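Summary of Year 1 activities. Much of the first year was spent building the evaluation harness for sequence design. The harness presents a backbone, in tokenized form, and records the residue chosen at every position. We chose the following record to illustrate the format because it has been used consistently in internal testing since the harness was completed.
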């Protein structure tokens, strides 16, 4: 129990130092992105009920669905629009970084758990989760190209991207939430705030640099 707590504290320190580091020396910190995302998922999962088979299978299901959606998206452009992945997220299979599957599982699970703070009705939970997840993606999109995560052919994500995120998030949240809600929603909120802090700080810095020009 104590180890889990210390790992969470260490992760918070990683996000704070990483966000500040990206502002001053992005070239040094960028290569650590895949490792940081994998570590984030690890720390999140050790706080979840992995001894519950339904929960574990649901999380794996989210990762698989997310990865398949990304592969279809990259190859066809019909899911999120025309885009391709850069090199910042590490090793790719079929043009999609493997860590992206972890990110899908992480974000959807977080969205569902945080949504339970606001409602106990399954349909509303799925809707709120989809809005939360799509909102996080909206924030990330503002800096994704700059950080070499992914690049859209027209330079910016269009409405199709957000519709795709919302639909996938809604249906996976709706279908799997009875298992996903068994997770730790307190820690889920912490992980959501870490995501918002990290990408929010980088986006604010981007805006300030733009204004300075």
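For this record, the design step produced the sequence shown next.
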């Amino acid at each position: 129990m104590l180890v889990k707590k210390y790992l969470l504290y260490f992760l918070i320190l990683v996000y704070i130092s990483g966000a500040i580091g990206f502002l001053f020396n992005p070239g040094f910190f960028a290569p650590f992105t895949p490792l940081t995302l994998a570590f984030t998922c690890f720390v999140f999962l050790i706080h979840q009920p992995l001894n519950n088979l339904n929960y574990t299978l649901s999380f794996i299901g989210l990762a698989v669905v997310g990865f398949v959606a990304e592969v279809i998206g990259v190859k066809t452009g019909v899911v999120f629009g025309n885009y391709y992945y850069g090199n910042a997220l590490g090793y790719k299979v079929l043009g999609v970084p493997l860590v992206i599957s972890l990110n899908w599982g992480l974000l959807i699970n977080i969205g569902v758990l945080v949504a339970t703070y606001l409602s106990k009705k399954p349909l509303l939970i799925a809707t709120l989760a989809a809005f939360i997840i799509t909102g996080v993606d909206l924030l990330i999109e503002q800096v994704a190209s700059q950080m070499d995560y992914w690049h859209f052919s027209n330079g910016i994500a269009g409405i199709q991207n957000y519709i795709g995120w919302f639909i996938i998030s809604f249906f996976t949240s709706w279908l799997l939430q009875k298992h996903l809600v068994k997770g730790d929603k307190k820690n889920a909120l912490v992980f959501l705030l870490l995501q918002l802090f990290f990408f929010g700080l980088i986006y604010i810095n981007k805006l300030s640099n733009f204004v300075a020009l």
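The radius of gyration is 17 Å. Quantitative recovery figures across the full test set are reported in Table 2.
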